[in-house]
Amino acid sequence: MQRQEVKFLLSDAGQHHRSFHVHLCFPEPWCRKQDRIRKGIRTACIMDVCWGVTAIIILFSFARNLVTLFGSTQDVILDNSALYLRFTAPFYAVLGILFNMRNSLQALGEKTKPLISSFIECAGKIIFALFIIPVMGYWGVIICEPLIWCFMTAQLVYCYLHVPYLRKENA
Prior knowledge:
Layout: H1 2-24, H2 34-69, H3 75-88, H4 92-107, H5 112-136, H6 138-161
Helix pairs in contact: 1-2, 1-4, 2-3, 2-4, 3-6, 4-6, 5-6
């Protein structure tokens, strides 16, 4: 039930990423100017942070109501789902930047670097499933994805900052 709310809340963030990155792939000369690309990616990251702040306000205020809206009336489910949503809300900006970096790198022709973040995600979920969730229980489930998002985003931002095409000396 929780993932449905998360997908609902993040649908807007995903839409602007997909529409923005289509423009990076076009062959027109104006699309391949490094300063325009950097500015566009920076703008998309600012949009991610704004959307993350909006999600925090909505979820901290209405998380339990949103879970009820999506079908559950049991107190345990409502409490656990609201806890999950409230804990993960501050990380939605990180997730948005992750989407932005992954799509940007792919649009710039960097195919393997975004794939590494998927391996980080898979390895992180295996580590959590084997070692952390058995010890921490539901709190392990709650912290799993946000922490993995942070590691993935750090790796992708590092890769983005080192894309040869966007380096200042190539501008």
